Automatic annotation (TrEMBL):
GO molecular function, one term: kinase activity
The protein's name: histidine kinase
PROSITE patterns registered for this protein in UniProt: HIS_KIN
Regions crossing the membrane: 393-413, 419-437, 444-461, 473-493
Length: 904
């Protein structure tokens, strides 16, 4: 069940989207001549008097003086002239209207078909582009041009209207104005020549404009207007969260491409419209590909469904009933619409079985069985043509295979009986039937069964070489053989259809899965484009390109395209709709252009466009090809969105980290540079001003301050330089032998010059030999660690330094390593902070380094020790009598031996 809050959100979102675009006002009439254009012009003049910018994009007056008078005084845009087959045709100049961008544009005759060479095939598509550009449109239409009523109009009037408008366009409505005129008054206007010239009027009165036709058309127009008012009221109530408006479940119509598919689509659209329900058009493929005529009808029906606002789905399965019920359960269907099949004995039996199975197994569904006079007439013609069709069937390759199989089975049975002495020859013929059924359709399997039955009877049942059967058991044998052959053939054919259905379904899933794997490993947009282009070429057998960017198209990697191709691609990019070949928009292009919609509002331009150019021999696309191309395009669009989001997140992360480091560096520099500089400047200033009056000891103390602070400043600058070299891989190792005691002693002695009160406890393992390292770097690393420990140790509390060789982890190489532990008795470091103390400038925020630290000492230590193949970790110390735990910094170095010198 649909969540009311979700329904209200959808209704509010739809209302906001309509408010952001242009609004559509339709002047609806039951027939030509009721005054739609006249009423529209009258409303436009009222808007003009109120100061609203109104232009006449195109209005057909048909020579009526009253209508022409209303056009005078309005801003009329010049029409666009197109040359076609030696004639000059005039159409609405769509680009001029878009450039003018009025508040309201008047576009007459919404169902008009544009002249060849126009951007769009139909005028209603021009109107959609105006609405997307934010321009309000006033337009006119007669009820017979509504797509969902096309079959109803044909039954009423006997006229098949070719210029139709999809009902989905009415979703953009702001207002609908019913222009009504009683049939008698309309006939009087027709007779007076106010609608057509006298010759045309006389013919119209005898056909389309009969009183009964006009009455029926008038009722349809009023019903359509009322339905639209009800739909708007329901949507407004839903947006306001008002109760009492239950939402219907979906309507599903099943078509088979056998003569009434488009009619069923229109019926389902009307049922769904009355119930305010979504609707789905499905067809089930049980194996193999439909023939050319059937596939063409299915394509037309699917295209019609999409124009009318429905969803088109191709299902695969061995059982039609199972496929329909499974999809109905997933899609939330409440009503299933079916059509009657052709009236042949076998077809009627199949239809009853399908209907009964749906009734028995689909207890929660409402079933609507639809038939048409056209379908019944076609069925009768089909029954008369059965003989000729059967003769045509016998000439096909499947029938030829059945004959060959029966002949080979007969020869093999004769050889087996003569040379092997095989008595039960029926198995050979059954195998032949199974082979035919597994490779062809059921019809060929039946033919093979009959031929094998006749051959078995004629050549191998006594009396031979006749169709007579000499014994009762012989009758049973041949009858059972025929039954077994038919059953085996049926099972084999059923299995074959199931395999073909699974193969077709899996092919689609496999291609999408393959594309998904390639897209999942794509790290940037360029890799996504290459993966998508290659997958489209491989899966669809067409030339393909994927363009990322905005219109107009540009780039060296684009294929050679003419002006029509680029115009179609630019239009697809801007309007997020398909264009070019196999569409009604700029159909003269050789490319089928699909927008990369991704996410975002419908008003936002597409992220790019996919172009597919199929061979010229492919005049139409099958539903499976179209669905696969659209699905792959959606996957590419989502992958592009993903890579862009990842790149944006990475840029944000790097930007944030850079900003953090910049702030930390500035804070560190402001403290660690200014503090020693302030001391140096102060001491130097005192010496300059009072040197002669100072005692010798005071002058010496000031000079000592300058020296100590200068060395402190030098250490800070050296740390920055070391960190820069580590970051750029510029640290070279000049190894030499040095004792561990010498390294530790040098670092301690150097530190005591700056911290005379520092105390140390040094413990060295006896027999600890020298190590092969870069002495200056290891000494600097030790110095940084020891200096950090001294800063946090309480006064008169020694820093512990312990050096020894220990066993490495089991199985690790080398087996022993040098371990140096430097422990203090400070406040310690929380466990979750220990890894971060090796980050640059971390002490500026918090950590086991004082506020006077640069935040670089341990980071440099980690880099220097890492360059020697070792590591540095922070561990909790051992608690003392006062409960202070402190911190232990552990340095681990592997024993590395120098390479032996080369022999001279």
């Amino acid at each position: 069940m649909t969540d009311p809050r979700s329904a209200q959100a959808d209704a509010l979102m739809g209302e906001l989207q309509r408010q952001g675009a242009g609004r559509l006002t339709i002047f609806l009439g039951a027939a030509p001549g009721v005054g739609k254009t006249y009423t529209m012009l009258g409303r436009a003049r009222e808007l003009q008097r109120r100061g609203i910018d109104v232009v006449v994009a195109i209005v057909e007056t048909h020579g009526r003086a009253e209508t022409s008078a209303l056009v005078e005084g309005l801003d009329v845009l010049p029409r666009k002239r197109l040359d076609y087959q030696g004639r000059t045709l005039e159409e609405m100049d769509l680009d001029a209207v878009l450039a003018r961008k009025p508040k309201v544009a008047l576009v007459d005759e919404l169902a008009h078909r544009n002249a060849p060479g126009s951007r769009h095939e139909r005028r209603w598509q021009d109107v959609l582009e105006l609405l997307d550009a934010g321009i309000d449109v006033y337009t006119t239409i007669n009820i017979q041009h509504l797509e969902s009523l096309n079959d109803v109009i044909h039954r009423i009037t006997g006229v098949r209207v070719s210029e139709t408008v999809p009902d989905a366009l009415f979703d953009r409505l702001r207002d609908i104005v019913l222009v009504d005129l009683p049939p008698r008054e309309l006939i009087e206007r027709l007779q007076q020549g106010k609608v057509y010239v006298p010759e045309q009027a006389a013919h119209a009165l005898q056909a389309f404009f009969s009183p009964s036709n006009l009455t029926a058309l008038r009722e349809l127009a009023m019903q359509t207007a009322a339905d639209r008012v009800d739909s708007d009221l329901r949507e407004a109530q839903t947006a306001r969260g008002l109760p009492g408006v239950p939402l219907r479940r979906a309507v599903m119509v099943a078509i088979d491409g056998l003569g009434q598919s488009e009619y069923l689509v229109r019926v389902a659209r009307r049922i769904a419209e009355r119930r305010d329900s979504p609707w789905i058009v499905v067809t089930v493929h049980t194996g193999g590909a439909p023939d050319e005529a059937r596939q063409s009808e299915l394509d037309r029906a699917f295209a019609l469904a999409r124009r009318l606002g429905g969803e088109a789905v191709v299902l695969h399965g061995n059982s039609i009933v199972d496929a329909l019920l499974d999809h109905g359960e997933r899609a939330g269907v409440s009503t299933i619409v079916l059509g009657r099949t052709r009236e042949r004995p076998l077809a009627r039996m199949i239809n009853r079985t399908l209907t009964q199975q749906l009734i028995q197994r689909g207890a929660h569904y409402e079933l609507t069985i639809v038939s048409t006079p056209e379908a019944r007439a076609k069925a009768r013609r089909s029954m008369r043509d059965n003989g000729s069709r059967l003769r045509g069937l016998l000439n096909r390759s499947d029938a030829a295979l059945a004959v060959v199989a029966a002949t080979l089975a007969t020869a093999l049975a004769w050889a087996a009986e003569r040379w092997i002495g095989l008595d039960d020859l029926s198995l050979i013929f059954i195998v032949a039937v199974v082979v035919v059924a597994a490779r062809t359709r059921m019809t060929a399997a039946v033919i093979a069964s009959v031929l094998c039955f006749l051959a078995y009877n004629f050549f191998f049942i006594e009396p031979r070489f006749t169709f007579e059967i000499g014994a009762s058991q012989g009758v049973a044998t041949v009858v059972l053989f025929l039954a077994a052959a038919l059953v085996a053939g049926r099972l084999a054919s059923k299995l074959r259809m199931q395999v073909l259905a699974l193969r077709a379904s899996n092919a689609h899933a496999t291609e999408l899965q393959s594309l998904g794997r390639e897209l999942s490993t794509a790290a940037d947009v360029g890799q996504v484009v290459r993966a998508g282009r290659n997958a489209l070429k491989r899966s669809l057998g067409a030339e393909a390109f994927v363009y990322i960017g905005a219109a107009p198209l540009r780039g060296e990697q684009l294929p050679e395209m003419n002006d029509k191709d680029r115009a179609a691609a630019d239009w697809s990019l801007k309007h997020r709709q398909s264009a070019g070949r196999y569409t009604d928009t700029l159909a003269g292009s050789d490319w089928w252009l699909l927008p990369l919609k991704g996410a975002g509002s419908n008003d936002a331009p597409a992220a790019g466009v996919v172009g597919l150019r199929f061979p010229t021999s492919l005049t139409r696309l099958g539903a499976e090809q179209r669905r696969l191309a659209e699905a792959m395009t959606d996957d590419v669009a989502q992958a592009i969105l993903r890579t862009r989001l990842v790149a944006d997140l990475e840029d944000s992360r790097v930007s944030g980290e850079t900003e953090r480091l910049r702030s930390a560096l500035l804070s560190s520099v402001s403290h660690d540079l200014r503090s020693p500089l302030a001391s140096i400047i102060g001491a130097a200033s005192s010496l300059d001003n009072y040197a002669e009056a100072m005692p010798r000891e005071d002058r010496h103390a000031l000079l000592e301050t300058i020296r100590i602070e200068g060395e402190r400043l030098d250490r800070y600058i050296q740390n920055l330089l070391d960190m820069t070299r580590l970051g750029h891989g510029g640290l070279a190792l000049n190894r030499d032998w040095i004792g561990v005691d010498e390294l530790i002693g040098s670092a301690v002695t150097r530190l005591q010059r700056y911290e005379p009160g520092a105390r140390f406890e040094v413990r060295l393992q006896p027999g600890l030999g020298p190590i092969w390292v870069h002495p200056a770097l290891i000494e600097q690393a030790l110095f940084n660690v020891i200096e950090n420990a001294v800063k946090f140790s309480p006064p008169d509390t020694p820093v512990s330094i312990d050096a020894r060789r220990v066993d490495n982890e089991p199985g690790a190489q080398p087996e022993q390593v040098l371990r140096i532990d430097v422990s203090d008795r400070g406040p310690g470091i929380p466990e979750d902070e220990r890894a971060r103390i090796f980050d640059m400038f971390y002490s500026v925020e918090r950590g086991d380094r004082g506020r006077q630290g640069t935040g670089l000492g341990l980071a440099i230590c980690q880099g220097m020790i890492g360059a020697h193949g070792g590591n540095v970790v922070a561990l909790p110390g051992q608690p003392d009598a006062q409960g202070r735990r402190g911190t232990t910094i552990r340095i681990t170095l592997p024993p590395i031996e120098p390479e032996p010198a080369a022999a001279p």
